[in-house]
Amino acid sequence: MTEPKTQGPAASPETGKKPARNGKANATIYDIAKLAGVNPSTVSRALSKPGRVSAKTQKLIEDAAAQLNYQVNPFARALPTGRTNTFGLIVADITNPTFFDIIRGAQITGTRRDYTLVLAESAESAVTELTAARRMMTTVDGLILASPRMDDDDIRALARDKPVVVINREVEDVPCVIPDVRKGIGEAVRSLAGNGHKKLAFVAGPARSWMSARRWEGAQAACEWSHLEAVRVESSKPTVDGGRQVARDVLATGATAVLTYNDLLAIGLMQELQAGGMAVPDQISIVGFDDIFGADFTTPPLTTVRSPLGECGAGAATRLLDLLQGSGEPAGTLRVETELVLRGSSGRVFPAG
Amino acid sequence: MTEPKTQGPAASPETGKKPARNGKANATIYDIAKLAGVNPSTVSRALSKPGRVSAKTQKLIEDAAAQLNYQVNPFARALPTGRTNTFGLIVADITNPTFFDIIRGAQITGTRRDYTLVLAESAESAVTELTAARRMMTTVDGLILASPRMDDDDIRALARDKPVVVINREVEDVPCVIPDVRKGIGEAVRSLAGNGHKKLAFVAGPARSWMSARRWEGAQAACEWSHLEAVRVESSKPTVDGGRQVARDVLATGATAVLTYNDLLAIGLMQELQAGGMAVPDQISIVGFDDIFGADFTTPPLTTVRSPLGECGAGAATRLLDLLQGSGEPAGTLRVETELVLRGSSGRVFPAG
DNA sequence: TTGTAGGCGTTATCAG
DNA sequence: CTGATAACGCCTACAA
Questions:
Q1: Which of A51, A211, A284, A304 has the most C-beta neighbours closer than 10 Å?
Q2: Which protein residues have any CB–strand C distance under 7 A?
């Protein structure tokens, strides 16, 4: 009644480490080689390079592989080559809907080109971000940084190691993907001017945000062009709550139109103003930025300058994979267009007055 | 003017494969061993197991490692051990905000325990999902499936290979995390009943959705308990647009209260009804499900049964990592509570009437 | 075109 | 407690 002494390799019932839980260890190129009657190196070639093997043996090997249900071991492959068919994406805040579309865009174009997405977030902290980035660098073939918080120098240092693409920020010597705000803001301001507005309040985002600065510049330029007065209002944080808090400051400016750093601010602002009895857009027009998910849930639906977030994610991934797959290294920064999405929260000044 | 014949190992300017772009290849345990004057295997021990090395050499090695800025090579480690400190998450639709919180929850508890999240989506296709899952299985230590579309059997097959945790669906023999809808629905129906409603319309989700069935059951049970009549209305798709389309069918039921399969449906429905001149909640009460991002952007803000999505993601990750780190294999299914979030879209029947 | 041999960085086994 | 040494699965000159 004792255990038989001879047991398969998948024996030791308690250790259960290597040969997975199902007992049958994965097939290797050696198994295939044996089955196909060739040398392992030939199998390797057949399975990686296309035409470096005779059509006959090619088929032989492929059949054997299929029969054995072979799957390459990514780690074994990564060891000698260093390549993993994997790329990382680090976002500043996984809570922020702005990044949802970016993640989505990157994920989709990634899988389309047979790359896997590895995701991390920095929780808005520059050091966490750098740590995460460093960790990832050892695992992935390349990295996408969405709205990074770390220093330019740190980014460049990373980029020296492996391909890096930055979204929503311009870093010298590093390929970037950034929405060009001019067109969208121009459209928004022209629309506002056409509706008789004379003064625009811009609700700024975080002080250190590269994008916020660009948007403020854009607003100023467009206002000048359209003969509008532009005033800037600071916000405490770029959230719905921050939008609520900034309401009184906005009113104090006397502006009849508002452009916010992002949609969250616009939504909060609108809620607060409406709660205070103001009519939107009859008494004040509100224009957000980004066109995040839910921007059209509000009443009235939010007019906003759409930033093609999904496109940014996709564009960054494309750029990165091009770099990885050796399409030269032209890089440079890719600009994507913004556009006005006209909905209900903006309109004529005091139409009833 | 010819090239010097002796070049460093990082030479060949065009190949540039292994020794990264920066030239200095990463330090290995051999380098550390040399510097510390010990054997590589000792270094390995010192760096992985805690107390299997004398305190003296331990420090020696750690110093050398720090000095060399050593970082383990995950692939080299994965090869003999099979472990990667990585787990996968496959969601049905990366577009759907329902999954945002799940992703977020999983990501956060993952990194907290030093695991990296690998993300993929199935684009609502069962085969894509299975393919993605199979691919991932070779790379990750375990897998989380959120609202999977594939067959129970496929899921079980995967689970036989490596630990798998399922969210939003119950699969026998596989650990699951599912929101228990009873409490939340109970609260919602009681609230409605307390406001004088006599008839509730339930707008169903996808026919094959496990969750939709549970929610309908829950609604029926709660209505029976509270002496409400429950009628079921089918929707074409669980989106804002689907909600709009279902409006006339809902009206046709004559119900004064509506509970929808998810928030998106509720939002679309509310938009359509309001566009048709109906007052919410004065003429009809609407209750959504999930409490997704943006559910409070609407006017009135949406009353909804909150499904703790973030908690689901976190719970699934915790469960998975526990399994991975050997805390026995009790598994079983984890139920998380739902609760009513009372906002403005529900209230008394015809208060003005 | 195909086989041979060595290496990628770690871990694990077995002596000492 | 520490030192050899053999895997782990695949890739890649180099040789045949």
A1: A304
A2: A 38-42, 45, 52-54, 56-58, 79-80; B 25-26, 28-30, 40-41, 44, 47-48, 70-73, 76-77, 79-81
Domains along the sequence of chain A with CATH: 1-72 (1.10.260.40), 85-178+309-334 (3.40.50.2300), 180-308 (3.40.50.2300)
pLDDT digits (tens, 9 = 90+) for B80-115: 888 899 999 999 888 788 998 999 999 999 989 989
Of A81, A111, A299, the CB nearest to B120: A111
If one counts every other C-beta atom within 10 angstroms of the C-beta of residue A135, the result is 18
Six token digits for residue B116: 């990296």
Task: Please tell me the distance from the alpha carbon of residue A104 to that of residue A311, in angstroms, as a whole number.
Answer: 9
Beta bridge partners of B164: B143
Q: Is the dihedral of CA B307, B313, B318, B321 positive or negative?
A: positive
Task: Report the chain A residue with the minimal C-alpha distance to residue B240.
Answer: A297
Lowest-pLDDT range of A34-48, A260-274, A281-295, A297-311: A34-48
Residue nearest to nucleotide C8 (CA to C1'): A80
Separation of alpha carbons A137 and A171, rounded Å? 19
Helices A29-36 and A40-48 cross at an angle (nearest 10°) of: 110
Restricting to B residues 299-318, those with a Cβ less than 8 Å away from any Cβ of A are 299
